[in-house]
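thread: overnight batch results

M.L. [08:02]
morning all. the overnight job finished for the chain we discussed friday. pasting input first so we're all looking at the same thing
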Amino acid sequence: MKTFRQNWLVLFFYFFISNSITPAQDIQRPAMWGIPKMTYLVSDYTLAQRYYGDFLGFDKAFTYSSPLGDVVSYKVNDRQFLEFIKDTQAKEKDRLVSVTFETENVEQMRLYLASKGVKVPEKITVDGAGNKVFLVHDPAGVPVEFLEWGPKSLHRGSKGKFLSPNRISERIHHAGLYSLKLDDNPSFYTEILGFKTILRIPEDISLAPQILYFQIPGTAEFIEHYPTDTRAFSHPCFVAKDMQEVIYTLKERRKDEKLANPMVGKGRRWLLNIYNSDGTRVEFTEMFLAK
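M.L. [08:03]
and the structure it wrote out:
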């Protein structure tokens, strides 16, 4: 009788455990909604205002605290921001603090990534602006943040405000991110996060890729991988409705800022790449093919 009771208890315990633990493969990736912000180190907040505020025309919206120092936020549109943290040694460092992807359930995303073997923090945090966030690193070491907007966050509270008519662009089109190598199937982005190849040059897959664009699922925004040997490659790329107008406007506004020659890129679109005095890059692209 004792053996029967022990066996019954073992079977009951096994049944209870096996039905109360959700298998890792059952955790679904929550929806993603694009690139809400990119955050950089800047050697001085004055530089940030002079370059991103006065020169590029974005409004400074607010400031909030972070473990790395105060974060100054410049607004691109109601859902996209460029943010800066002061570090007097910024020129000598990898200036990208993080590229951020919006998700509708950041805790589910954390659990999902953990189930796929990605090293994640033990818990999510609430940033100084009131958003739920956590940070991981991709295989190349790029800091990737996932964010769920807080309903009362500073970002959400700025809706309809700080939208300067002088801003040089109204949308971040893609984020160029450093990669260790050009890979047609970078597992972190394609297999785990579900990004899709939207542009490959050349199209012939028997030839090594020269440029790759990966679409964020469910959105019209992208990340770009391009052959590079420097982490300084990481950059926001803005939509230019009229490249010549962008060039001329920046020409009129410049003081000691440097411009560059526009070029037709491998995707046959006009591109313009400029750099602030720290060496941090900003790119512009037209949406239609150059003729």
